[in-house]
Amino acid sequence: MDTSDPDIQFDADGVCNHCAAYDDRVSTFLRTDASGRKEVERIVALMKKEGEGKDYDCAIGLSGGVDSSYAAYIAVKEFGLRPLAVHVDGGWNSELAVKNIENIVSKLGIDLYTEVIDWEEMKDLQVAFLKSGVANQDVPQDHAFFAALYREATRQKLRFVISGGNFVTEAIMPFEWAYDAMDLTHLRAIHKRFGARKLSSYPQVNPIMYYLVYPYVKRMEVVRLLNYVEYNKAQAIRTLEDELGFRYYGGKHFESRFTKWQQLHYRPTRFGYDERRAYLATLVLSGQMTRDEALDEISRSGFQSGELERETAYVCDKLGLSRKEMDDIMASPTKTFRDYPSQYAFLLFRIRLKRIVNRLDIQFKSK
User: What is the CATH number of the domain that holds 57?
Assistant: First the structure.
């Protein structure tokens, strides 16, 4: 990490706040010891009990990336669960992602529900976000993914949702780099200003519903299985390759062609930061990569020769933008989420409250 994160701080020993936070929170989020195993077995037993008389024990969001794919593998192979795989097609799946998902559900013997987002609505929303000048261009995809996942889990009357989210590969992400995709006020404000068509079928959920109603009223629980096992990303890829015919994309979230383009080109060009820093730094902290290896990887562009031009042309064509329109967007002034209406105050309160609760939980466990 470097000062492309505007909120980074270093102590007298040159240790940044991300490292300090990782060390402070590792005992809370990583539960790979005997007590963690006991806890996850209790959760799995509860999932199976809740699944009695139903077709599924739980739902699992399946993007086709390494984390969600390995979470599905662990759920079935290690814990004997019967998950319903929920995939949301936002229009940007690579051919490889489609093939990986087909192999995963086929070889694990699980059902797949795919929500296909209306492309004209998605396209209009994504062009609106590009015109808005904000950093997190994945909001349209990410919001739809989570909204559709929870909606399907609710429809199936499933209390548990397995997430591929984990602490050893994604503990770091500066707030300024990736503002919360669940802020529906923010999404709607940008679309109202720059969009051209109504979002009639696009899946939507507001933060209060997502962060309060689902977990506390509907009693839905998100289970991050990868925090309870010894999760080594390189080993996980080898396992997926050997047993499920998986093929790696070469980067985190690269199963989406748009995400790859905006991660390797849009954000570095417009905002001067490389999102890969956060993912690689987390792998360094979790001992899966040395700092020198991470610096070597970050020194490379991430695109093969000629690939940037091809991918930019693909994005322009798919979004119905001329190259001049895209060049104008890339040259326009940048903005932050603060330049548009949002529920930032609520989300900030939630983050602070969660930190207090985590601290109290750590203190309680230490007694």
Answer: 3.40.50.620
* Phi, psi angle pair for 309, to nearest 5°: -65, -45
11 lies in some domain = no
Q: What is the pTM of this model?
A: 0.91
Domain of 264 in residue numbering reads as 17-366
| Cβ count near 274 (within 10 Å) | 19
Task: State how many domains the chain has.
Answer: 1
Residue 358 has a pLDDT of: 60
Residue 38, CA distances (Å) to 70, 136, 366 in order: 21, 38, 18
Decide if 152 contacts 90 (C-beta within 8 A).
Answer: no
- The whole-angstrom separation of Cα 203 and Cα 153 is 14
Structure confidence at residue 361 as a pLDDT band (50, 70, 90): low
What pLDDT, on a 0 to 100 scale, did the predictor assign at position 250?
81
Phi-psi region of 253 (alpha: psi -120 to 50; beta: other; left: phi over 0): left
Do 154 and 314 touch, CB atoms closer than 8 A? no
Distance of alpha carbon 91 from alpha carbon 98, whole angstroms = 11
Quote the distance between the C-alpha of residue 2 and its chain's center. 22
pLDDT above 50 (res 39) = yes
In a domain, 357, yes or no: yes
Distances (CA, A) of 240 to 69, 74, 83, 107, 116: 8, 11, 18, 11, 25
How is 293-308 classified by DSSP, letter by letter?
Answer: HHHHHHTS-SSPTTHH
Please give the distance of CA 211 from its chain centroid, rounded to a whole number. 16
Residue 136: CA count within 13 A, CB half-sphere:
22
DSSP letter for 270, please. H
Give the residue from 271, 268, 261 showing the smallest Cα distance to 321: 261
Report which of 101, 124, 92 is spatially closest to residue 198, judged by C-alpha positions: 124
116, β-bridge pairs: 89
State the pLDDT at residue 367: 41
Residue 53 lies in a domain: yes
Residue 8 lies in a domain: no
Q: At what angle do helices 233-244 and 95-108 cross, to 10 degrees?
A: 70
